[in-house]
């Protein structure tokens, strides 16, 4: 029987429609943004991260602990971008 410790596996999510590899499914909002930046997604650490669930976007704080899954969708928005706000 294999007694070696279980090693976390990488998970690929999308941030702003770009694939981003996360080293482990157990991560944080900040780690997702850092991975996205390191992999060429045009965002900054000051962007607000959202997890996309259907038509809903749920804010994710930098310190929020998450368990992500393959192909999970995230959106990172500049703090001054009001495009997700309803218009009058």
In short:
This protein is mainly beta.
Task: Provide key terms for this protein.
88 residues; mainly beta; 5-stranded mixed sheet; 1 helix
Helix content: 10-25%
CATH architecture: Roll
Number of strands: 7
* Helix-strand sequence: EEEHEEEE
Main sheet properties: 5 strands, mixed
CATH topology: Ubiquitin-like (UB roll)
Shape: globular
Would you state the CATH class? Alpha Beta
| Alpha-carbon distance between the two ends | 64 Å
Q: Which regions contain 5 or more consecutive residues with pLDDT less than 50?
A: none
Based on secondary structure, the structural category is mainly beta
Percentage of residues in DSSP E strands? 35-45%
Total domains, how many? 1
Topology (elements, then pairings):
Blueprint: E1 11-15, E2 18-22, E3 26-28, H1 29-38, E4 48-53, E5 56-60, E6 65-67, E7 73-77
Description:
The protein has 88 residues and is mainly beta. The protein has one domain (11-76): Ubiquitin-like (UB roll), CATH 3.10.20. Helices cover 11% and strands 36% of the residues. The protein contains one helix and seven strands, in the order E-E-E-H-E-E-E-E. The chain has one helix at 29-38, and strands at 11-15, 18-22, 26-28, 48-53, 56-60, 65-67, 73-77. The protein has a five-stranded mixed sheet with strand order 2-1-7-4-5, covered by helices on one side. A two-stranded antiparallel sheet has the order 3-6. The chain is globular. The relative contact order is 0.25.
């Amino acid at each position: 029987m294999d007694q070696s410790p279980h090693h976390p596996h990488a998970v690929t999510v999308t941030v702003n429609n770009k694939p981003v590899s996360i080293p482990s499914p157990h991560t944080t909002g900040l780690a997702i943004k850092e991975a996205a930046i390191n992999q060429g997604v045009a965002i900054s650490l000051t962007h607000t991260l959202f997890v996309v669930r259907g038509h809903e976007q749920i804010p994710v704080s930098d310190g929020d602990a998450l368990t992500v899954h393959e192909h999970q969708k995230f959106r990172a928005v500049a703090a001054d971008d009001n495009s997700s706000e309803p218009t009058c």
